[in-house]
Write a structure and sequence with these properties.
Length: about 230
Amino acid sequence: MQDEFAAATLDHLDALYGGALRLTRNAADAADLVQETFLRATRFQDRFAPGTNLRAWLFTIMTNMFINSRRRVASERRLEDADRSDAVIEAFVSSEALRMARSPERQFLSHVSSVEVREVVDRLSQDFRTVLLLADVEQFSYREIAEMVGCPIGTVMSRLFRARRLVQRMLIETDRTQEVAGAAAEPSRSKPTDSTGAIPIEQARRRRSQSGTRGGAQSGEKSGEQ
């Protein structure tokens, strides 16, 4: 029975390592996190209900371990403030978050380069990054994510809503910055001028000469008519 469970968990090794790498952003830390996840899963395999989602159960263990490790080195004050902020915003965005599967932000992100998105997502706070990765990369449900991170479903929705908005905003700002930089680098296509910005002397003389020629021809025509 134990060998069957071990073999079943190994089927999710690649998915777990990919998720761990996105969470930790470090190959060595990701490998350690996956190893600890398998050890804990084996130790508490009696808590797994056969026939349920083993992948989600393993991700729950891994995510909890990751969050707990970060909380040990983070300020408790910062975490409490983040929770209070989520609770306040949750009352305003939960109804809209119910339509998150078809949100404009999610559709927008799906058309952007994965490299660009990854760079922007890495700039998010840990709470936002975690729910965004679990929802949009690992494709877990709100309920599953809530169990993984240990918070209400409404808080997951609010964090996901805010995370997608932040990513969209940062991507747009990055694109605008690149456009401005590109425009500044383009060579000027204006007519040639001297160092003072005036039209070159030879060009001015030709214009003046052409203007005088046209003026003389018009005067001759008027004299002939009289």
